[in-house]
Design brief:
Blueprint lengths: L1 H18 L4 E5 L8 H6 L3 E3 L19 E4 L3 H6 L1 E5 L6 E5 L3 H12 L1 H12 L1 H15 L6 H10 L1 H15 L9 H8 L8 E2 L4 H8 L8 H12 L7 E5 L5 E5 L4 E5 L4 E6 L5 H11 L6
Parallel strand pairs: 6-10
Antiparallel strand pairs: 1-2, 1-3, 4-5, 7-8, 8-9, 9-10
Helix pairs in contact: 4-5
């Protein structure tokens, strides 16, 4: 529909200018982040009305084309004209001197930097697809990514955090993410900021509990989980031994009570049990996985 309306509007303008005796027209693209590359390249170029060819040098050039034309008013008058443009960073409309899209874009990059402008343009052009992606991610991310604007800022401006958003959502989709491990807590744990063991994977906790509960005199599952968390979150001392390996996995051993636990960097608990050979098992773990730091 937009293309058809654009066609009729531009044809009507062309007829009006030709009736006024104007024999040339200016191709006018929209100065904003949504404009197609082909329209960018045609912007502010002058053509003879007799040579106009829709789809080649006269809009619409493509489906949903927003470009227009106007009569060419002569070199001196053209220099005095103003145009409206949407600032790619602030999103505000601005009145600027008459210039081509390429000249306008160059000025924006000088003012704000190539990366900022290119990122803003990419965000705008991908908005529809990103909104669909945001809607699929939102049930997993909850309030930690509060709105679509925040989602896009992470996606286009924070590569590391975006990679962790994708990992978190993927793990959640597969049912491996504990419901009490929010994305913010997950990300802080990955970055070792106020690290805390949170819970077992929902798909794995029953298997570990059934295998090891008798080692703890038949405790219930909730107590089993809480004791694992308590050990992993305990500071090291004469009885509590611990280290983080090079991959960020946490190892803890309570030498007094012969209890061993490990956790992923994310805070998802991997296992909790009483080693049959006690301290020797712990020493084997230290030897095999190596000490990065005590925790």
């Amino acid at each position: 529909i937009r293309s058809e309306v654009n066609h009729f509007n531009n044809e009507a303008d062309a007829m009006a200018y030709e009736e006024m005796g104007v024999d040339k027209y200016v191709f006018v693209a929209t100065l904003d982040s949504r404009t197609s590359e082909i329209c960018q390249s045609m912007d502010n170029k002058v053509f003879d009305y007799k040579d106009k060819e829709e789809g080649v040098n006269f809009p619409p050039l493509h489906p949903n084309c927003r470009s227009k034309t106007r009569g060419y008013l002569g070199e001196e008058v053209e220099k005095t004209l103003k145009r409206r443009a949407r600032n790619p960073i602030t999103g505000k409309n601005e009145l600027i001197d008459n210039m081509s899209y390429s000249e306008w874009l160059k000025k924006q990059k000088v003012k704000y930097g190539d990366k900022a402008v290119n990122t803003s343009i990419k965000q705008t052009k991908n908005e529809t697809r990103d909104k669909a992606q945001y809607e699929t991610y939102k049930p997993y991310l909850g309030k930690d990514v509060k709105d679509f604007e925040t989602f896009q800022k992470i996606k286009y401006n924070d590569t590391d955090k975006w990679e962790n958003v994708k990992k978190y959502v993927s793990i959640s989709r597969h049912g491996e993410m504990p419901s009490n491990l929010s994305f913010n807590k997950y990300y802080n744990n990955i970055k070792d900021v106020n690290w805390e063991a949170v819970d077992f994977s929902p798909l794995r906790v029953d298997k570990h509990f059934e295998k090891h509960s008798e080692e703890f005199n038949g405790i219930d599952k909730e107590t089993y989980i809480n004791n694992a968390k308590k050990l992993l979150n305990s500071d090291t001392n004469d009885n509590i031994l611990g280290f983080v390996n090079d991959s960020g996995f946490r190892f803890k051993y309570d030498s007094k009570n012969n209890e061993f636990a490990t956790s992923k960097p994310s805070g998802v608990i991997e296992t909790y049990f009483k080693p049959k050979n006690g301290i020797e098992y712990w020493e084997e773990q230290v030897k095999e996985y190596g000490n990065k730091k005590d925790v």
